[in-house]
């Protein structure tokens, strides 16, 4: 094991070499080095993100030192972007960092193409007047934007992504791809050579359960006009149980492999077929109308679709792995090789389709490697696409999810109220240039002003007014402050979502996450 493998061993077990390579090639931009922003970036630097850049035009203040343990008193008055970049870069020498001492509003006006070089942009405490144009710009560039915010005891994350392909959704308990109902020739040939009625006792009780189930499945089909025992699983289990060897004293032998076969009947009898999610991908216009600008994901999806319609005879490429089981080493290894060889053959066929498709749309065949296609084929059942709503759709009253918001508000006792209050706080900031409760001597006035902002927002949404006086007082009490404990938690969650976006593994949240630090609860909403 090399030094890098030892260093990143735990995370490699989670997202593998493919994921780590994607992470190490990624470029991240953090807008505003707030407590939540630096915590998010910290949790990306530690696992080895390629490079980062901090965009922030502010100077460090005593507030920053108070809510962010990366800073000390000597940092006060210095460029916040510079200090953040230097201190965070010390966490991992494999990661390169830089900074730009400029406000995001100036970059949006003078150099919007600045953001084109990044894979993900993280925006922390960016005012609404800058957040909306930033979101629109990145939406047009098809660059994911992750909005992260800690406001008092409330945490907020918003994923803004036009289209995010997931190469491996990593379901928690995926069913094995055994194909016993539609076996391929090499598997049939291997199992047909096994004769349970004549083999010695040692071989009999070490025969892999896959072979046992298949043998008795074929026997069942002969006795039931070719039908699988899908509705008679108990009877089928009894049939398998009847094959257990009987000791000379009339007592059944203890054969763990047969017991294992009985336990796995339900899994083995699941019909080999595509999921509805994969069918949806095959029907997507991006898969059926490839152009020179199509990303490799859609080219590969189309290649897999053509494989399914031809060589696959309606089935996806074989995954190529089998579960652990009670068996002798020799026959288990043989089974592994048979499944792997079939998976390799299917991947080669898909790769040939991909090469032809690339040629047809005028792109070099080197745009896709055989290894990449093989990885796609292994995870073909777990391919997904996530499409989020834009910030413009969320903020524009005519397209906002007002009906959903009203429904959640009527239900009561959920985190949507904090989303509404954060929107009202942003209106307050836009009108008065500060957060409510920032000055102690204006607390009472700010409570009234924030309530007015909330009322105007609800009127625009045509949602009935409701009593939120306690919440309004609480938000004014926060005074726009970041608590490090909340920022740390939200930063960890945000970094996790960024890693999903970079590695294209696991399904990112869609699209809004609210953390209630008062009750230690959280919710996700599609707004």
Provide a concise account of the structure shown:
By secondary structure, the protein is α/β, with parallel strands linked by helices. The protein has helices spanning 3-7, 9-25, 35-45, 62-67, 80-89, 104-110, 128-141, 185-192, 201-204, 209-223, 233-241, 256-263, 265-268, 276-283, 285-288, 296-309, 329-360, 370-378, 391-395, 402-411, 416-432, 443-461, 469-478, 484-503; strands at 27-31, 51-55, 96-100, 120-124, 145-151, 154-160, 164-166, 384-386, 512-516, 521-525.
- Tally of individual helices: 24
The whole-number mean of residue pLDDT values reads 92
The percent range for helix content is 40-55%
What form results from the Cα inertia axes?
Answer: elongated
Distance between the amino and carboxyl termini:
46 Å
Strand content: 5-15%
Biggest sheet layout: 8 strands, mixed
Strand order of the largest sheet: 3-2-1-4-5-6-9-10
Kindly state the number of beta strands: 10
Spans where pLDDT lies below 50 across 5 or more residues: none
Radius of gyration: 29 Å
> What structural class is derived from the secondary structure elements?
alpha/beta
Your description of this structure?
The chain is α/β, with parallel strands linked by helices and 527 residues long. It is built from 24 helices and ten strands. The strands form two sheets. The chain has an eight-stranded mixed β-sheet with strand order 3-2-1-4-5-6-9-10, with helices on both faces. β4, α7 and β5 form a beta-alpha-beta unit. The longest helix has 32 residues. The two termini are 46 Å apart. 38% of the residues are buried. The mean pLDDT is 92.
